[in-house]
């Protein structure tokens, strides 16, 4: 009964296959709160760990949409490999100079104002967007081989950009290591 308040009957394919609204709100709030903690924390390690928790909440939301492959990739690639790389780079940086910096309150107030203006613009745009008011069509019961299709697209059509991104991440990591080893003047 509570599920019908949050999910219209035209969307519900199988009531057993969707996440309960309580869990949806738990994972959605967890994602938003820890996403905000990434920005608010002054400690880069705490920000990176908050980003990991935000990624885990996002993976749970993907799983609730029956996008299991995307949810697993979210955990393996982003919460795993990319965050290990971020933490490795953050630990090479000089964090004592960052801790002594003071907050620029004028810049923070300006950033908050710009964020609020952007939020108001997004709300007005969504209100005027007609397809946003319609309910989603009934989900089909067809299953596709997501892993095969994504692999074929990634290594077929997007092989060169995939390799370029890998090289850029490697060069950026080597650059951070070399810059952190230099003696400050």
Topology:
Elements (H helix, E strand, L loop, with lengths): L1 H5 L14 H20 L3 H21 L3 H25 L2 H6 L4 H24 L17 H11 L2 H23 L4
Can you describe what's shown?
The protein is mostly helical and 185 residues long. It has 2 domains: 103 residues, NADH-ubiquinone/plastoquinone oxidoreductase chain 6, subunit NuoJ (Four Helix Bundle (Hemerythrin (Met), subunit A), Up-down Bundle); 42 residues. 73% of the residues lie in helices and 0% in strands. The protein contains 8 helices and no strands. It is globular and about 60 Å long. It starts with a helix and ends with a helix. The N terminus is likely disordered.
Strand content: under 5%
The oligomerization state is single chain
By CATH, the architecture of the largest domain is named Up-down Bundle
Number of E-type strands: 0
**Biggest β-sheet description:** none
Helix residue percentage: over 70%
Count of individual helical segments: 8
Describe what is shown at a glance.
The chain is mainly alpha-helical. It has helices spanning 2-6, 21-40, 44-64, 68-92, 95-100, 105-128, 146-156, 159-181.
